[in-house]
TrEMBL record:
The protein's name: Ribulose-phosphate 3-epimerase
UniProt source species: Orlajensenia leifsoniae
Catalytic activity: D-ribulose 5-phosphate = D-xylulose 5-phosphate
Cellular component terms per the entry's GO annotation: cytoplasm
Top-level taxonomy: Bacteria, Bacillati, Actinomycetota, Actinomycetes, Micrococcales
Pathway linked to the protein: Carbohydrate degradation
Enzyme class: isomerase
């Protein structure tokens, strides 16, 4: 099964985002970090900027909403044309209704879990989502260290996906490098967000190829 590599725009040059997209042509999608300085202590940008990125990006947008009140804001990102829109379980009021609203608007629906959030309440509703994002750092900043303590959660998810046959991608985000990607792939991830490991490389596309090759031999079919 192929490994999907989605570079995180958080580590890109914010003054030159359009040209930065041209440095990651070998990626599967661009991971767009939306932070509101409430749900997380950092701030990036919102729907207006994401809509413009959607217009100029040669890659699909994998939007990650680290914001309060995603029930209100997430559908707009789907309407803007995002390939996937992932919101946080800790912030959503009605996660199933919101996932359905995203799908109705043509986006893949994603559910994200902070490192301390248990996965058990969501294992019986996997069919409602197209992607589960297991955060492997506390959300908010790039360049943090991968938390191996999140791997048992990923293993439980991968087991549930295999057992139920749900068609759900398992994404990890935070501290992904050529080394940690092996650990996450072995635990069951198939979609990998990497910020600093890609954008801090001399040739980001080479870093993407390296990550993909490292993960490919370890990614399991569901
Ligand atoms: O969502 C994020 C932080 O909340 C970023 O996507 C993530 O941290 C990627 O950066 P890096 O690969 O450098 O850890």
């Amino acid at each position: 099964m192929p490994a999907r590599i989605n570079p995180s725009i958080l580590s890109a040059d914010f003054a030159n985002l359009e040209s930065e997209l041209g440095r990651i042509r070998g990626a599967d999608a661009v991971h767009v970090d939306i932070m509101d300085n409430h749900f997380v202590p950092n701030l990036t940008f919102g729907l207006q900027m994401a809509t413009r990125l959607q217009q100029v990006s040669p890659l699909p947008l994998d939007v990650h909403l680290m914001i309060d009140d995603p029930d209100r804001w997430a559908p707009g990102y789907a309407e803007a044309g995002a390939f996937s829109v992932t919101f946080h379980a800790e912030a959503a009021q009605e996660p199933i209704a919101l996932a359905r609203a995203l799908r109705e608007r043509g986006a893949r629906a994603g559910l994200a879990l902070k490192p301390g959030t248990p996965v058990e309440p969501y294992l019986e509703m996997l069919d409602e989502f197209d992607q589960i994002l297991v955060m492997t750092v506390e959300p908010g900043f790039g360049g943090q260290s991968f938390m191996p303590s999140t791997m048992p959660k990923l293993t439980r998810l991968a087991d549930a996906v295999r057992r139920t046959g749900a068609d759900v991608w398992l994404q990890v985000d935070g501290g992904i490098t050529a080394e940690t990607i092996l650990v996450a792939a072995e635990a069951g991830a198939d979609t990998f967000v990497a910020g600093s490991a890609v954008f801090n490389a001399d040739v980001p596309d080479d870093a993407i190829a390296g990550l993909r090759a490292a993960a490919a031999s370890h990614v399991h079919g569901h």
